[in-house]
Fold this protein.
Amino acid sequence: MKDALIEFLSEKGVLITPEALDYVEKDVGDINKLRSALSSMEEFPHILGIERIRPILEGEIAEAPLPKPSGEDNFIKVPEIPVKADVARPDINIIRDVTGKSRSTAKVESFLSTFKDRYSRLYRVLRAKPHLKYVRRIGEAVKKRGEEISVIGMVRDVKETGKGFIVSLEDPSGSVEVFFSKETLREKPLLDEVVGVFGRIPLSDRGKKPRMFGKRIVWPDIQPHKMSLSKEKVSVAFISDLHVGSETFLKDAWDSFIRWLRSPEARDISYIIMAGDVVDGIGIYPDQEEELEISDIYEQYTMLAKMVEEIPDRISVIMIPGNHDFVRPAEPQPAFDDDIKKLFSGEVLFAGSPSLIEIHGVKILAYHGTSINDFINVLPGVSYEDPSLALIRMLKSRILAPIYGGKTPLAPEKEDYMVIDEVPDIFVTGHVHSFVKSNYRGVKIINASTWQSQTKYQKMNNFKPDPGVVAIAELDTGRIYEKRFHT
Ligand code: FE
Ligand code: ZN
């Protein structure tokens, strides 16, 4: 039934949000009503969200709000470029995010199920590695005196001693301390990462805790990856951290971005992904109100909705939240609630952070990037100016935010949504207000830039943001290039 509905809608060039699809499936169970309701409509919405579907199915088609005609906006009056006849139809699918699936109860026990899920997902990945073929449960492995053995465990502690490091690993069957000399452990594991260790259990064990001598440590990591390309000539623009409502929002840079989107040069751009902190929010840091131009959260989103209306109609906008947005700060963050969504005219697809989104067959992992703060503290070479090593480490450990109890608030969920199960073609974050584009084992890495100039806080910390940069990915060629709009 689901497939039939998706097929019917895609013939009409309509996108349906996962939520709306769920609603049709569970609460209505009959697509014929929707089909006939849609057939009688003169104009199709681009994106069919739950707020559009509900009135349609409840027989109030006449009252269902139609998207605003684009001539009505009183912003920039640049004529839109004519849409090409062969323009690609929207082809977008949210493969995985927490929206509508959160089972968080905020109890300590539920973190146990998050950990268990993280462990079993990454166990499957590590199990396939060449050095970890003969892996045993820790509880069993520690009894194998004098043998060479592999274990897979979650990192509970890393201590530096005079001669090397002691890494405490834990799995559901037990725990073990693994000693590594400085030469064997060139890269230290981070807390709460899941790693595999190949080593030897000593014949005699005088210590109280089970010990192992580590010879090699293996991360879940990704295999060299070949990017999937789209058949259609389409491009995605990546932006982040608009911070609408802040005094430091760069209106001029935004306006020139909009003018560019309306120019022939940008004709292949069919999608814009916004990687969170789309508004500045309220009460995010002390005395924030002094730096706000709009101090009401709903007015901030209303302003943003007006800005989104300036974007040419051929472009589908996908928005995920960040730590400044009006959703729970704990990650994984779900998509915005209906009271925010309804402020937008229905041309926007809302997803959670993180989200795995497939566009024309290309998989894009979008995550706001709050955990980069934790990486800056523990990983040499990671900075606000250049967070690329943090993104690489996320792909290597296959966890977007490994460390619990750091700066990143994490919610206990039955599943660990922060685990990178599927290797994406493009991985995008934002949050640190700098611009980076790089590549790790074939995965394209982007830290999308901001639309906010230097804040007081950043000035105090001597950080210069790199605003107004847009990364554009050509999905048919895999090329990524940048355009600068802040002068
Ligand atoms: Fe931000
Ligand atoms: Zn942020």
